[in-house]
Amino acid sequence: MTPVAVVGDSLSAYAVVAALAKLGYHCDLLCDPAKSHFFGPSLVLNDVSETLLAQLFPDVNLSIYSQRLTHRLVRWGRQPVQVEQPALAIRSHSLLELLRNSKVMQHTRMIDVSQLTAQQISQNYPWTVYTRHKQRAIALPESSQSLVGGQRVIVTAEVQDTPKSAHACYIESLADGWLFYAPVDGGAMLQACLPITPANPRRALLECLYKSTTISTFVNDLQKVNCFSSAPHLQWPLCGSGWLMVGEPAIKIDPVSGEGTPFALRSAILAGAVIDAILSDRIPDISALSHYQTRLTHSFISHLRGCIQFYREVFSTNSAWLPEINQMIDIAETLSTQLEQQAVNVLNYRLIDFELHIG
Ligand SMILES: Cc1cc2nc3c(=O)[nH]c(=O)nc-3n(C[C@H](O)[C@H](O)[C@H](O)COP(=O)(O)OP(=O)(O)OC[C@H]3O[C@@H](n4cnc5c(N)ncnc54)[C@H](O)[C@@H]3O)c2cc1C
Questions:
Q1: pLDDT of residue 331
Q2: Could you give the CA distance from residue 98 to residue 95 in angstroms, rounded to a whole number?
Q3: Which of 60, 76, 131, 220 is most buried per CB count within 10 Å?
């Protein structure tokens, strides 16, 4: 059987490989060695992520490099609330290293994509899953649209931990942004979300700490300051004949929800199930691909609605945040209309374990 091509070298790429392996397929991982081993943000993985990772990579022991959390303290415009929330905090490069050493990834062939064009990839492989935008490697249709719900960013830093905060993470709204803090493997992670990219990220983070009443009490030092875009985003369409997109290039989830990794893992599992359903002639390709696009778009719209409500609670009169909220409203409406106009927009299938079935 010809392998499936998976373009990328990230959590989503590995999850697609693992999901397809569960169904008996081999993948080739098409990655650019020059761009591998990128240091992404530290992550707090919720219990859904942990369960899905354990199913996809049963031989991986996440606890080696991670910190177990039991609670989240939320100070979102009012008195702080403590919520019980089991989670694992882990640096993304530690997570990727653990997954890269899993049995399934060790048995996957890695191919240098830097010399391949989109045309060559589609000639060599009947199915390609893109988990990374790459010039020339992704043949998006001309009608492709990037729907972005704002321009906010997250400034991240590593800090020295204090024992007091060892099993809880914290989220705190400020007048014009929010802060997040979690202990992670001998240190801690700090993140500040701001509606525009600051000229000096370190100074912006220090200014946020100056306004904070909770998180600032744990932070004594900032290291490795970095900046990531964090506005939700969807690339439409998400799939076409012989290809699907998974992970951040397809759909970006606002990190405020803590749902980015579970969303990426679920999409990877669904992408694998769609390819399997088509290749095994169980479901016609048009129906299976429509299911993929409809299911993920519905989830993304729900995510946007949650974010709109959440941000309105604290930023409804803030002139820098109003465009963020309005752009999310706009893309939620655009996507709802697009779903209504799709030829097939009914969800006729469901996932049973890793397979897609009628019903
Ligand atoms: C600041 C931030 C914090 C997050 N925190 C959480 C969390 O606590 N819990 C959770 O479940 N999810 C979180 N997420 C989401 C999570 O990182 C991804 O959804 C998930 O890892 C899926 O990753 P992926 O393989 O699709 O993308 P990846 O390729 O791993 O990308 C993850 C992030 O890194 C950026 N990135 C990747 N490569 C590069 C590069 N070469 N240069 C610059 N940037 C790059 C991407 O744009 C993306 O924002 C967070 C995302 C961001 C941006």
A1: 96
A2: 5
A3: 131
Q: Is the pLDDT of residue 303 over 90?
A: yes
Which mutation among 9, 10, 56, 90 tests ligand 1's pocket best, with the greatest number of atoms within 8 A of CB? 10
Rounded to an integer, the average pLDDT of 287-308 is 95
* Rounded Cα gap, residues 325 and 319, in angstroms: 10
**Could you tell me the pTM of the whole model?**
0.94
Q: What class is the 153-229 domain?
A: alpha beta
Domain with CATH 3.50.50.60 in the chain: 4-70+89-142+234-358
The CATH class, in words, for 4-70+89-142+234-358 is: alpha beta
The pLDDT, as a whole number, for residue 318 is 94
Average model confidence (pLDDT) across the chain? 90
**Could you write out the DSSP letters of every residue in 292-347?**
HHHHHHHHHHHHHHHHHHHHHHHHTT-TTTHHHHHHHHHHHHHHHHHHHHSS----
Mean pLDDT confidence for 72-87: 91
CA 33–ligand 1 middle distance (angstroms): 19
Q: Which residue ranges does the chain devote to CATH 3.30.70?
A: 153-229
Beta bridge partner(s), residue 226: 156
Contact criterion met (CB below 8 Å) for 91 and 209: no
Residue from 228, 238, 263 whose mutation best tests the ligand 1 pocket (most atoms within 8 A of CB): 228
Q: Which residue is listed with tokens 């369409």?
A: 237
Short-list 18, 206, 203, 218, CA closest to 100: 18
pLDDT digits (tens, 9 = 90+) for 200-249: 999 999 999 999 999 998 888 888 899 999 999 999 889 998 999 999 88
Which residues, including other chains, have CB under 8 Å from residue 70's CB and lie 6 or more apart? 84, 85, 86, 167, 168
